[in-house]
Amino acid sequence: MTSKKEQVHKMFNAISNKYDIANTVLSLSIHNYWKKKCVSVLKEHHPKKILDLATGTADIAIQLAHLKPNQIIAADYADNMLLIAQRKINNKKLNHLITVQKEDGENLSFEDETFDAITISFGIRNFENYQKGIAEMYRVLKSKGILLILEFSMPKNPIFKYIYKFYFKNILPLMAWIITGDKKAYEYLYDSVAAFPQYDNFCNILQQQGFSQCRYIPLTGGIATIYLAQK
What we know:
Helix content: 40-55%
Shape: globular
Largest sheet: 7 strands, mixed
């Protein structure tokens, strides 16, 4: 039986070439605002060494350059995503700042207490064992280091939630099939969001792994949420 890790790896490698355009079209470009908001929230912490985990095509990593850290590591498990990430970093002439690296989020290769901040956008729910992944992030963060997670969530407003679920289950997979040729990857998206713990429940999980001062910031009516926690 194929593991979730292998399935996710195969899925993201398959859609990598159309991943950026699919994100922009399917979110009506709102994902760009969410990612800029993440950088804005992290700014007050002045991190100097940052790990962007599940970097995908390095959107967040490139945005993080505005914080003027000393080093950013853009890490992902999907090889094809990393190829595109490297190309984008080259085009932005950020090679001196951003290093692209293959990493398994549940078994990070870094030493304890390496990073001032870790970011992960739309990636934590794809982990086979996200508790193990969170424990690894805690391990490689420095004391007082910041974990920032951007993830899809279910809106609390009943009407908005109904519209959101209808779009996610019926319209988004069809549009994704037209753009990427892969409908299953975006059917998986809804199922993974619906199954993932959210809001206070997710903060409780972070705290169980040792994090403190967890808070969350719902975005665009709760379609996505930023979680912030400190080691």
